[in-house]
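[step 3/7] inverse_fold.run input=structure_tokens len=347
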């Protein structure tokens, strides 16, 4: 079968390769890979050497955002041939820490977790892959290829889930949500906020292309400067990873605000900070700023439900480019109008 192979940090090594059929060690659900989604992490792995191939290998099967159709599944797995599924990314560390022992691998304490297509395990960028039933999330059949959005949606489902838990500390009646960044995470974070009936503002720097109209179609405001926020936000979903923006936002929130950081910064930029003023503001306003990575099983389920009830026409616009398998390395080159680029593993 064909697979998207790369040696981390060596983009010239990115190519389609014939590899062996997936090993039973990966699990007894056999899946025909349909699509994989491309995210910043895949670009960082390929171009900057983030990530790590499976032990003893220089190259790895790339991609962690998956969609496939079940070919074979054990009778008691709750899955049947033909089901649409996406694979969970993270696996607990082999000698589990306290969190991993409770299946909270997204809160792994010792860093020994692995991630399909990122850290220590082959990814889902192959024409067939295997997983254990527990790591295969069943998707509503009506989603079709849009099911490839499950993994990024699980990341924002976790952001909201954690926000809800933090919010339980006191009286909480949020109205305004600010989402920073109109990439896939920002867009899907805004979708989940609108599904909760909240007033949403999305900040991004572009004024052209599909993003402004897509945000408005969701019933949200689109702005390109924090000065244009209609009100101080109660919740912020940060999805740019731009440190300077993060600290700017912290200083502009409503009392008791919860700021969730999901953007993984790739730069090393420094800024001058009014550290005392920020500290004072956070203390006097009970502000919580927290980071959120990856997702637990319950977040994948929440994400599957959110996608199932979302407007399919709107979701369709999130996928801005489809690349056939034999040209997959071109999916790593960012184009100005890209939101989510996917690779068609059967084309
Ligand atoms: C993925 C997460 C992963 C993180 C760190 C993100 O791109 O969506 O599942 O945990 O990278 O490797």
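[step 3/7] decode complete -> sequence:
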């Amino acid at each position: 079968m064909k697979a998207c192979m790369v040696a981390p940090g060596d983009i010239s090594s990115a190519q389609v390769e014939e590899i062996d059929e997936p090993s039973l060690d990966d699990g007894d659900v056999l899946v025909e890979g349909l699509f994989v989604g491309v995210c910043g992490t895949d670009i960082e792995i390929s171009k900057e050497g983030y990530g790590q191939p499976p032990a003893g290998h220089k190259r790895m099967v790339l991609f962690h955002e998956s969609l496939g159709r079940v070919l074979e599944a054990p009778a008691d797995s709750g899955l049947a041939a033909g089901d649409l599924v996406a694979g969970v990314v993270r696996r607990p560390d082999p000698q589990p820490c306290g969190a991993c022992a409770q299946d909270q691998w997204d809160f792994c304490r010792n860093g020994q977790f692995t991630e399909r297509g990122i850290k220590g395990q082959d990814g889902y960028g192959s024409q067939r892959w295997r997983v254990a039933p527990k790591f295969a999330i069943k998707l509503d059949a009506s989603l079709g290829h849009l099911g490839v959005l499950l993994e990024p949606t699980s990341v924002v489902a976790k952001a909201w889930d954690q926000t809800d838990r933090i919010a339980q500390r006191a009286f909480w009646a949020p109205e305004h949500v600010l989402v920073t960044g109109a990439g896939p995470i920002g867009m899907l974070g805004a979708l989940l906020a609108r599904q909760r009936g909240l007033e949403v503002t999305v900040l991004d720097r572009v004024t052209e292309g599909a993003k402004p109209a897509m945000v408005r179609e969701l019933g949200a405001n689109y702005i390109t400067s924090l000065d244009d926020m209609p009100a101080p936000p109660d919740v912020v979903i940060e999805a740019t990873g731009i440190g300077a923006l993060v600290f700017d936002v912290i200083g502009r929130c409503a009392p008791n605000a919860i700021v969730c950081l999901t953007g993984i910064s790739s730069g090393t930029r420094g800024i001058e900070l009014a550290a005392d003023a920020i500290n004072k503001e956070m203390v006097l306003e009970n502000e919580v700023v927290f980071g959120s990575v990856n997702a637990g099983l319950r977040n994948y389920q929440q994400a599957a439900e959110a996608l199932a009830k979302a407007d399919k026409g709107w979701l369709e616009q999130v996928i801005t480019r489809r690349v056939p398998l034999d040209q997959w390395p071109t999916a790593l080159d960012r184009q100005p109008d890209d939101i989510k680029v996917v690779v068609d593993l059967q084309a």
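[step 4/7] annotate
Residues 39, 41, 64, 89-90, 115, 118, 151, 155, 293-294 surround beta-D-glucopyranose (CB under 6 Å).
The mean pLDDT is 97.
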